[in-house]
Amino acid sequence: xxxxxxxxxxxxxxxxxxxxxxxxxxxxxxxxxxxxxxxxxxxxxxxxxxxxxxxxxxxxxxxxxxxxxxxxxxxxxxxxxxxxxxxxxxxxxxxxxxxxxxxxxxxxxxxxxxxxxxxxxxxxxxxxxxxxxxxxxxxxxxxxxxxxxxxxxxxxxxxxxxxxxxxxxxxxxxxxxxxxxxxxxxxxxxxxxxxxxxxxxxxxxxxxxxxxxxxxxxxxxxxxxxxxxxxxxxxxxxxxxxxxxxxxxxxxxxxxxxxxxxxxxxxxxxxxxxxxxxxxxxxxxxxxxxxxxxxxxxxxxxxxxxxxxxxxxxxxxxxxxxxxxxxxxxxxxxxxxxxxxxxxxxxxxxxxxxxxxxxxxxxxxxxxxxxxxxxxxxxxxx
Length: 382
Description:
The protein is α/β, with parallel strands linked by helices. It folds into two domains: 3-191 and 362-378, 3-Layer(aba) Sandwich (Rossmann fold), CATH 3.40.50; 195-361, Rossmann fold (3-Layer(aba) Sandwich), CATH 3.40.50. Helix content is 43%, strand content 16%. The strands form two sheets. A seven-stranded parallel sheet has the order 3-2-1-4-5-6-7, sandwiched between helices. It starts with a strand and ends with a helix.
């Protein structure tokens, strides 16, 4: 008899962010002896090997999600529990993604279901500490939305679940910092899909000097304000491209830096691969993360990565695929930008290492490792 895995994904299964990550893992894990069912609000992904249960009615699956988000919450967890009941046996388990309620976790425990949880960012206790400090240093009120109640809720859930997937070492450290026993923690990674980035086009033509690219929300949490400062102070000849939606406080407080001739902001793009292909290096001074997909993607494009411990995940190693620096080490960041701008041979060496390393983190390989971890925890062989 195989294993049946019920996945609770309250967010939509779409082609980006957490939904994309969940769908990629589920699709890769599903197989003849490993059945996967996902209960979600709605899905835009094609997952032929997965049983996808969409809670929203058909008419609500094609309108802006913010219009129907409240409706999506009604009955989702009841539907998930019913799904678990349909295949519940000693070879079944629940796999919880964000925002599962304490009550549902408690009910799963009452039923004796083994519970896995995806910790896609740091524990909120650690995240709040880091981000409170970051906004204070930036001279503005916190904009992260994490409250003491949020932290308490996550702590309670972590106490009840059996196993927690930690996609990066910083995630593990944050859980330990907040009192989660190490025996619950499962080291893991995220991945990337080369097929998503087929093509050869470049968003930007070659220019004089280096092209440094940042991809993601242009916000305090991801250190965008720090990067803008370091870039300006480095004096490097070239251009900095920021691709993502900008937090208003960054636009307000970094207006002069954003207005520089060597800084370009892309708030909309349909082909992020064309942005990566135009780059010489990837720069990502994130303050709080789990295991950012953009780092895997940048390595897949053979880009040397300058990042932080949070941004490196388990793919970037200092001095190999890139440089891993303290986000507040201004001198270190400025020196790194200058060195990579001036030393093409060093860039090429890191580029080859990044591309080779990325081959270990395609989604199918990552999902197979996840499946094996689950089988081991459930006491079964593949």
